[in-house]
Q: What sequence folds into this?
């Protein structure tokens, strides 16, 4: 991704492009390369040989009580709640 900000931009872009219910993931493939992918409904990246590193739940139930229909603000605030030490451990 080059920089952390580039990663955030790409991740949020994927979130905004997901229509309906699903998830956006930072995943690692068997070669150790990182990608951002989205899955719909209850699909998950483990079923296609990806190691999930980070995930955001974009089902309406995940954000409606706090954000109503404002998915964009939910996604922007997502970064405040991540324990980067745990994410780092998943990459090792």
A:
């Amino acid at each position: 991704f080059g920089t952390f900000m580039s990663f955030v931009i790409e991740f949020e872009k994927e979130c905004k492009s997901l229509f309906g219910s699903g998830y956006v993931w930072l995943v690692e493939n068997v070669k150790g390369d990182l990608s951002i992918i989205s899955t719909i409904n209850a699909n998950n990246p483990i079923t296609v040989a990806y190691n999930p590193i980070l995930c955001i739940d974009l089902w309406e139930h995940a954000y409606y009580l706090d954000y109503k229909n404002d998915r964009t603000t939910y996604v922007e605030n997502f970064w405040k709640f991540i324990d980067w030490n745990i994410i780092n451990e998943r990459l090792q």
About this structure: The mean pLDDT is 93. Helices lie at 4-17, 60-67, 71-78, 84-90.
